Amino acid sequence: MKICAVIPTHNHHDVLADVVARIREYDLPVIIIDDGSNVQTHDVVAALHDPENGVTCQHLDENGGKGVAVMAGLAMAERAGFTHAIQVDADGQHNLDRIEEMIRIAREDPAALITGLPVYDDSIPEKRRIGRWISHVWVWIETLSTHIRDSMCGFRVYPVSESLAVWREEGCGHKMDFDTELMVRLYWRGVPIHHVPTEVTYPKNNTSNFRMWKDNVLISWMHTRLFFGMLIRLPGFIARGGHFGQKHRTGIDPEKHPETGGKSARHWSEIDERGMYWGIRFLGMVYRYGGRRLCMVVMFPIIAYFFATGRIARRASQDFLTRIAAITGHPKPGLRDSFRHFMNFGESALDKIAAWSGEMKIDDLDLPDHAESLFDYIPRDQAVILFVSHFGNIELVRAIASRDRDFRVNVLLHQKNAARFGRVLQKFAPESQVDLIEVTEIGPDTAMLLREKVERGEWIVIAADRVAIGARDKSVSVPFLGDPAPFPQGPFVLAHLLQCPVYMAAAWRNGNRFEIAWEKLADKITLPRANRVGKITEYAEQYAGWLEKLVVTRPLQWFNFYDFWANKKDNNE
Predict the structure, then answer these.
(1) What's the pTM value of the predicted model, to 2 decimals?
(2) 56: which residues sit within 8 A by CB, 6+ positions away?
(3) Residue 162: which of 128, 130, 189, 124 has the closest Cα?
(4) Which of 32, 292, 450, 504 lies at a 20 to 30 A Cα distance from 326?
(5) Taking a C-beta distance cutoff of 8 angstroms, is the pair 479, 544 a contact?
């Protein structure tokens, strides 16, 4: 690793010699780029030119902007054999004591970009503080993360070759839009970002090169470019499991993977719910700062992409809607109907965000029998099991109920989805009273854990419409929408072990309101040893019949985008 410093300057000369001297204390060669400065600055820069003592200066005849100056410096550094360059502003606002720490981190992670994380004193203008905050929010949207904590600091260590590659292959803003755009584009390429807290002081009588109108327009246009650049890259980002610029290694044979046209059947849990965490996290930021309508606009091309590329999900939607049409006597559905099905799924993601962000209140729900509270159905200290499904948006009930500080909800989820949803939940509602319990199948350990929760009067929520991985032989086949379909035994076995009331519950959007269906399945589920599977089948038939009535009347709220009946042959054998 070979490192130098690059100082771009345009009409900054008052403390330039001091900045150079401070950098030279670290035995770093210095490259100064005079970006078309006035005569006084030109003369100061010329006086500092001393290649034999590690200071090289280059004059640009015309002012091209900060980006042009920095990249000219990096190009010089590359020709001189340097692998890394520290960009330092010429006005002396940064605490250069941090150079040693930045070099240390760069040596530990040579592929990374190391940036100062400004720690401001009272000298920062208020308008500048507000403007920076707005840029930070946009960068979080453009990178689908909060990894970049500050994108505007002009004190950073660049990997030279990677930075020049971005400039040559993609281009960047030339002026005050340069620092942010280059950092975001490097992040898109998978370059790690490390932050070093750095004290920043705005010098008195400092000459600012920021042009209020022109540079704000340039920065706005830059964020527009980056936003749509993010949308273009989003499919690859999701395919890589939430990483920009990193090769996707799945170990899956494309000839056998159903998404690539293979014929091998796969279990629902093996079909990755692509980008759930990152998609909802991104939508959450847009929802908070732009509202629901902007979210729907942003979601449209994303959902269109998944509709166009998700052959399995699209085929499952068509099959499901065809079954509904046969039952209701409606015309056979087309691709437009399936796309509406996908859009409803996207809209349900927004409802999840609204629920967990506290935007949705109990008054937004139409409760059965004109009840005023969820606890009108069940005493507050009564433990119950809720059988839910991938119909509608049961998160509405969970989110609202969990805001009561004396009340807890425990949700059993398949391990892969639980991890993703848990991260989302922590972002939107870290104070929620929901415990997410990761399970692949319900065994003695799970039952013992839940027994303790039942004894404390807590709710247990479990999806009763999907057979968990590792439990394919533990399902029962019951009629559902015209054909036998596999339903899991696990929820019924669990209810038998816990011996508390079992309710069937669902919630869904109806215009601008939300409805809830709520019905008791049993005060206690009892499974006799002699006919255990037969009794489970009876309960499953009762649950499937209740769920079918909801699904038939509101088919676009059904979100099982896989062949729900695929295992009917196996389960009949």
Answers:
(1) 0.55
(2) 29, 30, 31, 32, 49, 76
(3) 189
(4) 504
(5) yes
